[in-house]
Amino acid sequence: MGLLDIVPTGVITGDNVKKLFDYAQEHKFAIPAINCTSSSTVNAALEAARDQKTPLIIQFSNGGAAFYAGKGIANKNQQASILGSIAGAYHVRAVAKHYGIPVVLHSDHCARELLPWLDGMLAADEAYFKEHGEPLFSSHMIDLSADPKDENIAITKKYFERCAPMKLWLEMEIGITGGEEDGVDNEAADKEALYTPSEDVYEVYEALAPVAPYFSIAAAFGNVHGVYKPGNVVLRPELLEQHQKFVKEKINSKKDHPLYLVFHGGSGSTTDEITTAVGYGVVKMNVDTDTQYAYLTGVRDFILENKDRLMQQVGDLSKGPEDSTPNKKFYDPRTWIRNGEKTMYERVQQANSNLGNVNQL
Ligand SMILES: [Zn+2]
């Protein structure tokens, strides 16, 4: 039995997301959440997942969503980020089904000062729900990990109560992911805060579980956003197993992994670290930095290889100044952007392979 026996293709929400995550835990794989900033990057990720017969998570960060809407739109009161994430969501909804894979549509980190962005997306979810009986997005992330723990949990719970009637998933973060992402800079964070204690994870569970089962937790285990020199980051994925055991005992769960865990800041991690984390009930791993770089390499190599044709509209400089062949097929964005899509495609497939997310349909 494969995944398509239990969930449909296209954007999935609510219980179908739960079925997907349960299936992933049971079969010991995780799904990469690919940060996308354009229809081009969305399509590259979908194509890669389709060809490997895997489910996919597409996510928009606050800045990525603003870019999707267009840098020409001012982001006053999060207007561009709201518009861009909605535009991206509609794009994904329009095409995902045609790729024949289940897709989870998600929004990434939302820190306290960005809450108007989340409010805007939730309003769009509620409007969509009225019409279609499901929210526009599959899930959102709220990240109040920089705030005091009690406030983090209380505000997260408040938002979760708004999500619950739509069976909208909420991912939250407890403990701090190091490094810098989307303007949130934790480079100077206290090293201890990079490792979340199990008691804190249980506190989150206790607050959210009575509301609904549709939540996941990004607990810090030394993760850092971005790619740094080896040795800079000490990941302790065994902490995730401790959290699972701690919560299992507290709630007397039959499941060995009662928590849906999320792996942030995993760029540059070893395959061993990734496999270990997945074995401890991680269902989602964020991939951003590595696919950004991959997208660049295809474009970069194409430009460098064809420099003699790209410096002017007509003529190949390597053939002398008299050459007059037109270069349209080289400078057409569909040519050079496609090269970025191809290298991003390969990196998405590598992420899938690392996570055991291959041939799951
Ligand atoms: Zn993150």
Automatic annotation (TrEMBL):
InterPro entries documented for this protein: Aldolase_TIM (IPR013785), FBA_II (IPR000771), Fruct_bisP_bact (IPR006411)
Gene3D superfamilies per UniProt: Aldolase class I
Pfam families the record matches: F_bP_aldolase
Keyword annotations: Glycolysis, Lyase, Metal-binding, Zinc
Keyword Ion transport belongs to the record: no
Catalyzed reaction equations: beta-D-fructose 1,6-bisphosphate = D-glyceraldehyde 3-phosphate + dihydroxyacetone phosphate
Top-rank taxon: Eukaryota
Cofactor notes: Binds 2 Zn(2+) ions per subunit. One is catalytic and the other provides a structural contribution.
EC number: 4.1.2.13
tRNA-binding keyword on record: no
Biological processes per GO annotation: gluconeogenesis; glycolytic process
GO MF, any single term: fructose-bisphosphate aldolase activity
Family statement drawn from the similarity comment of this UniProt entry: Belongs to the class II fructose-bisphosphate aldolase family.
Protein name as annotated: Fructose-bisphosphate aldolase
Organism: Coemansia reversa (strain ATCC 12441 / NRRL 1564)
Species classification: Eukaryota, Fungi, Fungi incertae sedis, Zoopagomycota, Kickxellomycotina
